[in-house]
Amino acid sequence: MRTDAMDKPWDLLGNTLKMATFALILAALAVSRNHLIIWGSVGVLGLLIVLVLFSHYGEKVPMLIFFLFMALTILFNRSFSHMALPKPPFYVTEMTMALLTVMLWYKGQLVIPRAMRPWLLWVGAVMMIGLIFNGPRFGWLAVIRDSAELYYIWFVPLSYSLYRLALPLLSRRTVEWGLATALWLVPLVYLATASIQLPSTAESVSAMLILTLFIWEWHDVPPAMIWPALILNMVSLMRWGARGPWVGFGFAVMVLLILAPKVKGQFLARLKLETMVSVGVCLWLLGVLWLVDQPLLAHILQDLKSLTTFHGHYSQIANNRWRLIIWEEAAKQILSNPYAIRVGQPWIPEKLVSLGYGGWNATQGFAQNTVALSNSYLQMMQWYGIWAIIPVGMIVYHSLKRLFQVRPLGPNQVLISTFLAIWAVVTGVEVVLEGPYMSAIVWSVMGLAWYFPQWHSVHKKEGAA
User: Fold this and answer.
1) Which of 40, 356, 365, 450 minimizes the number of CB atoms within 10 Å of its CB?
2) Which residues 6+ apart lie within 8 Å of 244 measured at CB?
3) Is the preceding omega at residue 89 within 30 degrees of 0, hence cis?
4) Where is the chain membrane-spanning (predicted)?
5) Are residues 363 and 372 in contact, defined by beta-carbon separation less than 8 angstroms?
């Protein structure tokens, strides 16, 4: 039987080794001029600090890392997510996924719902087949990077496991104040750092916040702190001219109109009143734009008109035409052999070159020359044929099934549904699931949908208490 006296020498030795390691790393930082050594030392030092905190605070550390990671991803999207450790294709997102997975597994808190397991195994098998057969042909780094469209799906069970730990600890009041803070902080950061923001991400998140403002049942935060944020988020939604989020927002509003009458209580009446007020705010904002910046208003209206126009010299119309060309060519390639796995294969349609587009939007990374389709659904089928879209579709189906199994329908279910509606559209017109900056958000919302019945149960008990 061990005693405290027997443990003390080992504790002393462990603490001494930690201090010696920290001292060596700091010494390396002080004397080295090699950037690789400096960043490597910083990374090791950061990892050691995290592990020390993890040994003392347990599951609270991965919870904190996850929410900090998501906050930075939302606020700075590509500028944060494309930080490479140590170089592409291994970004901060991959490192965070790996670290959180190991921490949760070590504590026995990595939970994969039974209904999710066969589909995740299917996705993993397809990804491994692509790596094994296409890695030697097209280059390992190219295939690994393109495989991100599948391995980022790991955020569904990962976020689900972290929601199980974190959300029962957060009261409704805490969640509400967090959302109210986001209503102001996110658009302010977006507008202050406009030059580094990725439009499709910033505008999609702004659309999510506008819907949150309307749908969430506010109890603790005064209305005077909520509704002025509507103008900020509307400006942020229109600021960059990425039209996919506008269409996604419109689709989300349609979903809201379908689901709202099914919610019991005063939800529909409240929504009607808020909508009337917001229409007035929109008209006022248009009037201000007309008086202050007519060219900007004309530019926004021209972007809106371009949504249904495919002939002309305006840049957004040219972008429409470019998308139609590559989608048509990709569809032809897929239909020629829907079972082929082409992940990592270089691809630029000859039709693009013949029409004068050249290699516009072609990436040179990882020794390949390929065009991103700006349509994650089509991209998945081009790279993996029918083999990946089926299990991914089933994961989405089961997430929605879990979300709507709670009866009667409540505002929070409607809110999550509108989030998914936005991303369902944006995923079809942008590079979403292939990159770390948007896929982490999409799959984490999916994980929230999967966890919703348990979250509802916890907060129902809180309300009863």
Assistant:
1) 356
2) 200, 204, 425, 426, 428, 429, 430
3) yes
4) 12-30, 36-54, 61-78, 90-107, 119-139, 151-170, 177-198, 244-261, 273-292, 381-400, 412-429
5) yes
The pTM of this model reads 0.85
The pair of structure tokens assigned to 202 is: 């910033």
Question: pLDDT (tens digit, 9 = 90+) per residue, 65-117?
Answer: 999 999 999 999 888 888 876 666 678 899 899 999 999 999 999 999 999 99
Extents of the domains making up the chain: 64-312+373-464
Alpha-carbon dihedral 319, 256, 72, 58, rounded to 10 degrees: -140
Backbone angles phi and psi of 209, in degrees to 5:
-70, -35
DSSP alpha helix (H) spans, 193-314:
199-215, 229-238, 243-259, 267-292, 294-305
Q: Give the amino acid at 127.
A: M
CA distance 252 to 244: 12
Looking from the CA of 51 toward its CB, the CA atoms found within 13 Å total 13
Dig out the tokens for 54 from the structure. Answer: 């993890």
Q: CB of 221 within 8 A of CB of 180?
A: yes
**How do residues 375-384 score in pLDDT, each as one tens digit?**
999 999 999 9
Cα Rg of the chain (Å, integer)? 24
Report d(CA 249, CA 304) in Å as an integer.
13
Q: Please name the residue that has the structure tokens 């991100």.
A: 148
Q: How far is CA 250 from CA 24, 81, 204, 262, in A?
A: 56, 28, 11, 20
Work out the angle between the directed axes of helices 229-238 and 267-292 (0-180°, nearest 10).
Answer: 60
Residue length, the chain? 465
| Contact between 414 and 215 (Cβ < 8 Å) | yes
Virtual CA dihedral for 416, 152, 78, 59, nearest 10 degrees?
70
- Contact indicator for 396, 124 with CB cutoff of 8 Å: no
